[in-house]
Write a structure and sequence with these properties.
CATH superfamily of the largest domain in chain B: NADH-ubiquinone oxidoreductase 51kDa subunit
Radius of gyration of chain B: 27 Å
Number of strands of chain A: 7
CATH class of one domain in chain A: Alpha Beta
CATH architecture of the largest domain in chain B: 3-Layer(aba) Sandwich
Number of domains of chain B: 5
Oligomer: heterodimer
Number of helices of chain A: 6
Order of helices and strands of chain A: EEHEEEHHHEEHH
Amino acid sequence: MIVFDTTLTIDGIKVNGKKGETILEVAKRYGINIPTLCFVENLPSYGACRLCVVEISKGKNPPILSASCTYDIQEGLVVNTKSERVVKARKILAELLVASAPNVKIAQDIAARCGVKEVRFKMEDNRCVLCGICVRMCHEQMGGEALGFVGRGIERKIQMPFNKRPKECLLCRGCEFVCPAMEIPCQGVKIPGELCGRCLRMDEMPYCCTLGSFGCSCDHNPLASSSK
Amino acid sequence: MKKIRTKKNLEEYRKRIKKENSKFKKIVTICGGTGCHAYNCEQVKQKLRKELVKNGLLKKVALKVSGCHGFCENGPIVTIRPENIFYQRVSEKDVPEIMEKSILKNKIVEHLLYEDPVSRQKVTYLEEIPFYKSQKRLLLGKNGLIEPDKIEDYIVQGGYGALVKVLKLPAQKIIEIIKASGLRGRGGGGFPTGRKWEFCRNTEGEIKYVICNCDEGDPGAYMDRSLLEGNPHSVIEGMIIGAFAIGSNQGYIYVRHEYPLACRNAQIAIRQARKLGLLGKNILGSGFNFDIQIAKGGGAFVCGESTALIASLEGRMGEPRDKQHLHTTESGLWGKPTNINNVETWANVPLIINNGPEWFYQIGNENSKGTKIFSLVGKVQNTGLVEVPMGTTLREIIFEIGGGILNGKKFKAVQTGGPSGGCVPADSLDLPVDYEQLNAAGSMMGSGGMIVMDEDTCMVDVAKYFLNFLKEESCGKCLPCREGIKRMLEIVTDISEGRGKEDTLDLLEELSAVVTDTSLCGLGKTAANPVLSTLRYFRDEYENHIKEKKCPAGVCVPLLRYEILADCCKGCGACIKICPYNAISGKPKEIHIINQDICAKCGSCKTICKFNAVQLQ
């Protein structure tokens, strides 16, 4: 039996959770959707994509934005997942994401759902969004340690040691399985590198949903309602 | 050598060294700091030694190579005690003269003395030089008296006296003393040190660690380096005291491998302290065990951030962990409670114990206590390390100590706090330097870098420089920092190359706000500061670049346009000959013309023209 020992407020609703849970986990249980990219259940949370930012007020301190996947719940926290500040930050993050990897379906999906209508940066063509799920899968789940990050800043990429398959790699293909960017781009993108978002011009949201984290076209999704 | 076990032992040892030192009639000290090294102080030292041997004075005159004196602009520095004569810009060929006049006789070599640029008078003694006069050199003052690889020098100066005092006190009392002193973290955050120690002490756990953060990476900053190079024992003593208060048995000094001298001196100091029983098992017979190891960092700027530093120490990739709610004092190195402090913070600890918290509390201003070392660099007369009480105004630091701007130019702005800090303009010169006031001005204390800029500096270019630095140094883990800084740099580069549009500044501001709000660690959260602060104070300069496509300071090359004034040009042909791109045409004795399509804006024509006919438009 789960013993709930912590009470906090998310979007004005009083919710319960147990110590050690993150805001994201509790929100999910209550059906509050927070978009994510680098979060995968059963893998340790990483906090790299920052799409799951929420506004957190603690006591009298001014509210801060923080990733909900790494923030443990505390008694009396007041969390807002769709304030203007959050939505705006998320939109810019989605814009940055899609500008760096426009030919990756998940980046286009996230951009569409965050309401990105135009990209003000130069489009690039990265095929990896550096969410690090494959690295965590390899290290934490398979105990393989065959994949890792190489380089710093914009040179960061995912590689096997010295770009050669080490004997630790068991060819389990776990990395491929979890990669969110492996999906074939949807039919919408005609010119490679262009912002798609065509599905948004249809009246209803598509059935596909980014990692299930947007809650598709449910009413809780402020972005879905704004597109109608 | 016998180990020191009691207070009496230490005092006997101190007396013995004093007696040994008393046989020296004179002490000649050469600054061996980083700046003076670049000025070839090593050769001066070799020459001095040769001269001493030649005169058979090796046993009567002590030759010391000390840590940084701070006045790096005028190195290499040689001081002669007990007279305290201060010679600057000493070269190898000056050595025989010093030998003859100052060491053999008690005369002064006039031309090596510092000359006051205002009154044109020669200054003989260190304390009288304006650069030193307004400073309060609590931490750096001993650098000139101590040879960093000799523990004896430190002990003679009263070293390890604070440790003896502390080992008899209950740990809680030591924390109370540090709390009462008002000491705040010198790494930039300004968190009260006493409270941090208390958190760490109160966290449950048998194993705890203390770490000294010497991963100084700001462009133009070198105070932590000079402190660890020049007086490593003060840092070690501070760490032992801290470890005793917290209840830790293992410490690490995290220093970047680009600081070989700091690594070497700290290593030697640790070995000497171990030999005397000041480190290791049963320190001074108190039953307290503590040891320090040196950990060399690879030189990544982000490893100055506490969680990234810990990751690097553990042997992982140096990238930060999201720690919004979990401080390193609860879960740090290998998941154990860990207390990380900056070099300067640790070096302050023995001073506070020796002189009492009240003494420390009355130095500084309302919220910030004690002194702070700044590395004053850029377009200023006296570059070097400056130690002043907190609350000293920027004007005092730049104009009184720094001697004003180079070549009589006008002051424009000062950049404090490194890449995470911001630029403070001329009308805020009377701002007292402390944690809160600098934050309010859109900059920050940081670890103490201070880059002075004159009227020839373009603020867009400054923002571009720091963004470029941060782009290289961002670890790349989180999206806003990795992509956001890159895009900010793209936008600023566009502005500086004349491709800025009306709405560019809005986008830049919007992006800066999001990068600040959502980044994972301190590097990203402060990365927008150079842009935001220059936008705040020098918005007109950005607008000039965008609307009129002009760079008022004449720095942004693509926006420059050289033209030959018809009234002044005599048709001498000098510019035609010098132009490496053959962009200038014209017959002799006729007005020459620059072909703007070919011109690469190198400026050689402007330099060569005797008639000032080439002008920057």
